[in-house]
């Protein structure tokens, strides 16, 4: 935002004369009263004009069509609930929470909301039916308001809108979709920071916010709901699905629409944000915290009371300033129960709302009954897709899933199997491919293997559910080296699984490029030459520069093979036809050399399991840590606990003894990524941290972390619109840039409403 725009925005926010009628002409909102049941209507309406109003919001995020799947739920203390989830049990928990709140508060009212990614990357029971069963189930669960996430873009917003309005599809690839009893969604979509490119128009008639009236005719408060999605969309979806849109700054969008709501007398404001967050001991970290801190700078009077986060699938429950920030993990494994009290005098929440983030625990003593209507919808969907999903396509060499768990070099057995299959299927099509590379984020599940070692169509589809087109491109050895090096930026969030080549990499002293490729070889040991051309199989997401891999955009497209789902399934089927068993392992295709092996001090007494120790050691690597760093980053086992001690760690002499209280603690996410805010440790002048990494079984390994004195290079820009988050990482893709240069302008206090409308696009 230009400096004059920022100043003028502040003036606009503080001027009390901005008419709500102006807002009404630019943004149509639908104010609705949420009424209690008929049984409680009389008692609710007898409340006095000034009586405070209890209000409950139940929420979820990142459901991903998880009709019948379960997984582990972890809170911010690392407490695990196994086998959490399923849609019908989630519905049961939500129903009970709502009924208990109503009973305890004399018929008080509840609204159900979600923060995006309800569809996309879904298991076969929903995905094969284009997630239409998920829409039906969300209707049955009575979700009133939601926003969009990155996965709503997976097949384009046009297809998502078709699903939402219940329109019949044009294609039916498996012969089971046309007859599905689809229905239109009853959930109102709010999204404020996605507009058609070069305009201020939000697509498909969606609104940036909606207003709901809570209470009775004589005693009510308006509550506003604003929707935003991460501006990382261009790094997460195919170019063809995002290039028609601009993605506006999240903080500026929240501030802008918060001001519009306040000018209409709406002081109780909730943000539904597909934006990541984590928490520890009520303290929120991550982009959600950063954004709300920025909102406070842009518009100190913003009045955002609650922020429903999403995207990184992490338990979150804490407060940023006075805003409650929550996230329910993902895939129906947990839910949010947020409760507050509305004051008709102030038209706001009395205090920051309270919240609990709770597991959908099937083994709880007081677990509720499942919702029978939801269960019937799930069973119907399972029956419809069974003819496809239950078909055996291959046989594994051993029982047990083939895992996507990565080692310290971020290589996984399943990643090797997938990319091996891509090379093999290209060759089967007559294309002499040298290599294959795929983004690790596209591997969505372990490959399930049945007790009789059978691999089914549904198990394979769950691994590669997107249906990305597989491209065959020409790349020079220099370009191959470039994309491999692009894995090792300062964050290390995005990385590749590879086939047909191997390489070694070494540490550097550059904090922006902590590692670099040392040498590369083909599978037969032949060195990869910088000026030689190779054929590489990649998906079209990577070909468009997805995940920030700009090196792929310079490749030359020469051919294509079947989409990734069909390619993976076809590879397994071809092995079965040849009488070959499916197996995969880590083969050191990516190998760190000249590295310091983590040391676990010898402890007398009962030793830790050597095998479990080795798993932790192989999976864990910490990025270089500088004394002016705010974050400690790295990778380890998924959901591992990390305890940090300043200086050396003094271990008790028995395995069963409790660990001493850590100076700081954190948890890896569901993909094993470590991101811990270490500012409270005041690293400047200190020499060393000691990290203790504990797996889910409390096996532990200790890692020394040197604190380096060198300061990080900070990229500076005087104008945040000149460099988007995506561009700051890889300068690709670019979206929503404003390049116009305007002179400094000071407005008078009596600014006309037309100026507000004119500036809306410039500011956002």
From TrEMBL:
Range of residues in the leader sequence: 1-24
Alphabetic keyword roster: Cell wall, Hydrolase, Membrane, Nucleotide-binding, Peptidoglycan-anchor, Secreted, Signal, Transmembrane, Transmembrane helix
Residues annotated as domain Calcineurin-like phosphoesterase: 56-315
Biological process (GO), any one: nucleotide catabolic process
Membrane topology recorded in Swiss-Prot or TrEMBL: Peptidoglycan-anchor
Family membership noted in the UniProt record: Belongs to the 5'-nucleotidase family.
Name of the protein described by the UniProt record: Bifunctional metallophosphatase/5'-nucleotidase
Lineage, uppermost ranks: Bacteria, Bacillati, Bacillota, Bacilli, Lactobacillales
């Amino acid at each position: 935002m230009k400096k004059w725009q920022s100043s003028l925005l502040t003036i606009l926010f503080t001027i009390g004369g901005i008419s709500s009628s102006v807002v009404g002409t630019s943004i149509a909102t639908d104010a609705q009263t949420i009424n209690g049941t008929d049984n409680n209507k009389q008692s609710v309406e007898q409340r006095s004009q000034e009586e405070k109003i209890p209000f409950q919001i139940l929420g979820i995020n990142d459901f991903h069509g998880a009709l019948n799947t379960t997984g582990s739920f972890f809170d911010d203390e690392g407490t695990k609930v196994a086998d959490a989830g399923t849609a019908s049990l989630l519905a049961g928990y939500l129903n009970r929470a709502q009924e208990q709140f109503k009973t305890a508060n004399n018929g008080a009212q509840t609204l159900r909301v979600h923060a995006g990614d309800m569809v996309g990357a879904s298991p076969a029971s929903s995905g094969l039916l284009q997630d239409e069963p998920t829409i039906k189930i969300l209707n049955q669960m009575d979700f009133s308001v939601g926003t969009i996430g990155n996965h709503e873009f997976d097949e384009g917003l046009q297809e998502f809108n078709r699903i939402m309005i219940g329109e019949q599809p044009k294609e039916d690839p498996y012969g089971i979709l046309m007859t599905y009893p689809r229905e239109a969604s009853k959930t109102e979509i709010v999204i404020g920071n996605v507009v058609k490119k070069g305009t201020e128009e939000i697509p498909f008639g969606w609104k940036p916010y909606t207003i709901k009236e809570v209470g009775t005719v004589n005693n009510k408060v308006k509550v506003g709901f604003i929707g935003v999605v991460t501006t990382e969309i261009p790094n997460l979806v195919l170019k063809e699905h995002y290039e028609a849109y601009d993605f506006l700054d999240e903080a500026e969008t929240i501030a802008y629409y918060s001001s519009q709501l306040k000018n209409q007398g709406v002081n109780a404001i909730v943000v539904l944000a597909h934006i990541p967050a984590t928490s520890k001991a009520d303290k929120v970290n991550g982009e959600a915290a950063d954004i709300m801190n920025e909102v406070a700078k842009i518009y100190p009077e913003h009045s955002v009371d609650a922020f429903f986060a999403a995207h990184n699938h992490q338990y979150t429950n804490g407060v940023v300033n006075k805003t409650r920030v929550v996230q329910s993990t993902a895939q129906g494994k947990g839910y949010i129960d947020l409760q507050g009290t509305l004051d008709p005098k102030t038209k706001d929440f009395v205090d920051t709302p309270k919240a609990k983030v709770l597991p959908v625990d099937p083994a709880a003593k007081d677990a509720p009954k499942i919702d029978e209507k939801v269960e019937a919808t799930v069973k119907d969907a399972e029956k419809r897709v069974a003819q496809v999903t239950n078909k055996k396509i291959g046989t594994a060499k051993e029982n047990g899933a083939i895992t996507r768990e990565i080692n310290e070099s971020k290589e996984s057995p399943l990643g090797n199997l997938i990319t091996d299959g891509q090379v093999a299927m290209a060759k089967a099509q007559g294309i002499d491919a040298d290599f294959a590379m795929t983004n690790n984020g596209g591997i969505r599940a372990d490959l399930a293997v049945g007790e009789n070692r059978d691999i089914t169509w549904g198990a394979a589809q769950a691994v590669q559910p997107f249906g990305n087109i597989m491209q065959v491109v020409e790349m020079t050895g220099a370009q191959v080296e470039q994309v491999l090096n692009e894995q090792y930026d300062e964050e290390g969030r995005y990385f590749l699984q590879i086939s047909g080549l191997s390489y070694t990499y070494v540490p550097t002293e550059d904090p922006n490029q902590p590692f670099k490729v040392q040498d590369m070889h083909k599978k037969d040991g032949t060195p990869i030459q910088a000026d030689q051309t190779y054929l590489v199989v990649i998906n079209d997401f990577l070909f468009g520069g997805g995940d920030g891999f700009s090196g792929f955009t310079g490749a030359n497209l020469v051919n294509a093979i079947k989409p990734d789902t069909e390619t993976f399934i076809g590879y397994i089927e071809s092995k079965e036809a040849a009488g070959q068993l499916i197996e995969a392992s880590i083969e050191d295709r990516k190998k760190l050399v000249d590295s310091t092996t983590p040391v676990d001090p010898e402890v007398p007494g009962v030793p830790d399991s050597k095998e479990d120790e080795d798993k932790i050691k192989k999976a864990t690597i910490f990025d270089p840590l500088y004394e002016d760093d705010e974050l400690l980053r790295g990778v380890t086992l998924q959901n591992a606990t990390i305890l940090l001690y300043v200086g050396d760690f003094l271990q008790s002499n028995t395995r069963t003894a409790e660990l001493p209280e850590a100076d700081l603690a954190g948890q890896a996410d569901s993909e094993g990524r470590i991101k811990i805010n270490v500012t409270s440790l005041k690293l400047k002048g200190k020499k060393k941290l000691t990290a203790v990494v504990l797996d889910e079984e409390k096996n532990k390994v200790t890692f020394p972390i040197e604190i380096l004195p060198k300061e990080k290079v900070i990229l500076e820009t005087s104008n945040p619109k000149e460099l988007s988050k995506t561009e700051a990482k890889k300068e690709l893709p670019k979206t929503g840039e404003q390049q116009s240069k305007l002179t400094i302008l000071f407005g008078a206090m009596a600014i006309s409403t037309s100026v507000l409308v004119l500036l809306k696009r410039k500011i956002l």
